[in-house]
Amino acid sequence: MASTTTTYHLVPNPNHLVLTNPLSNHVSFLRKQKNNVSHITNLKKKNPWLDPFDDGEDPEMEYGSLFVDGKQEEDPRLPDDPNNRFGFLKFPAGYSVELASLPLKVRGDVRNCCCVVSGGVYENLLFFPIIQLLKDRYPGVKIDIVASPRGKQTYEMNKNVRYATAYDPDDELPEPAEYTDMVGLLKNRYYDMVLSTKLAGLGHAAFLFMTTARDRVSYVYPNVNAAGAGLLLSETFIPDTLNLSEGGYNMYHQMAEWLGKPFRDVPRHIVSPLRVSLSRKVKEVVKEKYTKAGAEKGKYVVIHGIESDSKASMQSRGDLDSLLPIQVWAEIAYTIREFTPVFVIPHEKERENVQEYLEDASIVFITTPGQLAALINDSAGVIATNTVAIQLANAREKPSIALFSSEEKAEKFVPEAEEKKCIVIPSKTGKLIDIDVEAVKNAVETFNVSLAFV
Amino acid sequence: MAEAIMGFTIFKSHIHNSSCLHARRSEVKQSSRLPNQHSTSTLFNGSHKVKEGKFKRASLCKVNGLPDWPLMAVIVEQMEGQRDLITIKSVGHLSDEAIKNVYSWYIMFTVWGCLFYGSMKDPYYDSETYRGDGGDGTGNWIYEKQDAMEAEAREALWREELIEEIELKVGGLKELEEAGKKEEVVK
C-alpha cells in the first residue's frame, strides 16, 4: 500500500492538475462524475520505462504565438512551386523533411492511423463512432482498419476509412507467414498511431510494437495476462470485464474518452452517435433483392435474428443469447398486418425452415451488413433481437422493436431507446426464448399505428 | 596369333608426349617381364612412379593435351610378305568422380527440366487467380487490387455523401430565398 501512495498523487483540486499538466496525467472523468469525490486518486501512473527523460510538459511553453496550436490542418501538403516545371513542393524556410516526424510528435498530430478491431460485425459497427471521433479530432487523418474477414465487411458502410485489411487479430495461432506479412504491411504504411481493441497481452503488444507506430494504444487484459504489455504500448486501457463486447453500445468508452481528451487549445471531443452511409450500388442490389422477394419500398418490416448456425447471424459477442427460433418469429409475424414482413436469412438452408411456417413469406438472403443496412434503409421499420439490425435501424433512424434477453442487456446495448424510436422488450426470465410474445404483439400493434401515422 | 599376343606392350597415352617417351620405354622394358603386376599397378592409376631423379621434375610439370584415357594395347600383327597390321586398342574409361559428375548433371537437368518445361504449360498462369489481379506475365507477381478498389469505393461513398449534404444545404437556402421572395410579394 505504501508503494502505491508514493506513486499516485493525491490531488485536492483536479482542475489545478489538468491545467498545469494536461499531457502526462490523465483524470478519469467518468469516475469523477459518478462518485463525486473531492479527492481523485485514480490518476494514471506514468510508465517510467517508456521514456525515462519524460518530465512532462514544459509549463512555461507558450503555444499559439510561437508554436502552432490547436488541431492539425486537414491538408498538410505544402504549396506547389508554380515556377518549377517538375512541380516540386516549395518547402518553407527551416522546414526539414528529415525531421518531419519530430514536430508531428511534439504537436501530437496523427496523419496515418491504424485500428486493429477485434470481433465480428457487431463490434466493428460499434467502432464507427470512434472512427468518426478520430476524424473529428485529427482532421485529414487517414484511417486504416485491420479486422477479421467478417468484420471487414462492415467498412463498406464507412466513408472515413481508407484501407480495410482482413486479418483476424483474435486468432490464437496465426500462420507464421500471414503474421509476418501483416507486420511488414503495417510497418510499411508508417502509422503515427495504432489503436487496438483486442485485449493485449505481451504477444499482441509485441505485434503492435513491431508496426513501429509512434503511439501504440491498446486495451490490455484486466488480469495478470497483461504483464509486459505495458512496456511495448504507449497507452493502455483496462476494460471492465474480460469480454469487451459486454459493454454494449459504449463498449469502447475508455478509448473514446482518451481519444477525445482535451489537449492544449483543443476542447474535449464528444463521441457522436453511430451513423452509417450507404452507397448507391448496394442500394440498387438490395432493391432488386427485396422486390424479387415481393416487398415494396417503405412498405415492409425487416425481421432479423432467426436462429441459425450460420456465421452471418451478426450477433454481439457480449450477448450470445440473441436469436429466436422461427416458430416464435412466425407468431410475431402474424400480427403484422399493414406491412409485409421480410425475413432476413443468414444462410440459404434457412429458407425451407421459414417456408415451413410461413408459406408465402418474403425471404431475403443477406449476409453482409452493408446490404442489411440498405434493406433497413428502405424499410418502414425493424423487428429484431439483439443483432446488428437494431443498431443499423438506430443509425438510419428507423423505428424498431428490439427483443432482449434481459433488461440489463437492453440498457447496455440500446441506451436512450426512446430517443432512437426503439421499443425495447426484455424477457423477464433472462432467457430470450421465454420472451412474452403477447407483449411483442402489443408492441407490433402500436408499431402499426405509429407507422401508419408516419 | 601367338606372335601377336607375344608382341603385346603396355603403354600409357603419354606415348605421344615426346619428352616422356624415353623414360617410358625404359620403364616398359623393365616391367614387361611381369605384365600382370604392371597392369594392376599403373594402368588405371593415372599417375606413375618415376624413379629416375633426372626426370622427376619433367614428370611433375607435365601437361596433358588429351584426356588421360589409358591406352590398353597396341596389337601388331605380322604377316609374311605384308606390312604389319597395327591395331591400337584403348579403353574409354571414366573415373568414379567423372561418372558421379555425369550422373549428377543428368539428375539436375531432369529436375530443372521437369519444373521449367512443366511450368510452361501450367494452367495456373492462365487462370483467373493469377491473371485476374493483374499479373501480366512479365514477372511472377500477383498484384492485389482488391484493397485499392475497396478504398476507391469508400472515397466515392464519401463524395456522394458530401454532394448530398451540399444539396441539402443548397435546398435549404433556396427555400429560404423563396420564402423571402414570397414575403416580399405579400408586402
What is the CATH architecture term of the largest domain in chain A? 3-Layer(aba) Sandwich
Radius of gyration of chain B using CA atoms only: 45 Å
Oligomerization: heterodimer
Query: Separation of termini of chain A?
Result: 62 Å
Q: What amount of the residues of chain A lies in strands?
A: 5-15%
Shape of chain A: elongated
Defining traits:
heterodimer; A: alpha/beta; Rossmann fold; 2 domains; 12 strands; elongated; B: 187 residues; two-stranded antiparallel sheet; 7% strand; rod-shaped; disordered N terminus; Photosynthetic NDH subcomplex B 4 (chain B); PNSB4 (chain B)
Describe, in plain words, how this protein is organized in 3D.
The complex is a heterodimer of chains A (454) and B (187). Chain A has 454 residues and is of the alpha/beta class. Chain A has two domains: 38-275, Rossmann fold (3-Layer(aba) Sandwich), CATH 3.40.50.2000; 280-452, Rossmann fold. Chain A is built from 18 helices and twelve strands. In chain A, the strands form two sheets. A six-stranded parallel sheet of chain A has the order 3-2-1-4-5-6, sandwiched between helices. A six-stranded parallel sheet of chain A has the order 9-8-7-10-11-12, sandwiched between helices. In chain A, α12 packs across α15 and α15 (369-377) crosses α16 (388-395). Chain A is elongated. Chain A starts with a helix and ends with a helix. With 187 residues, chain B is mainly alpha-helical. Chain B has seven helices and two strands, in the order ααααββααα. Chain B has helices at residues 2-6, 18-31, 35-43, 56-60, 96-120, 128-131, 146-186; strands spanning 71-77, 85-90. Chain B has a two-stranded antiparallel ribbon. The N and C termini of chain B lie far apart (147 Å). Chains A and B meet through β3 of A and α7 of B.
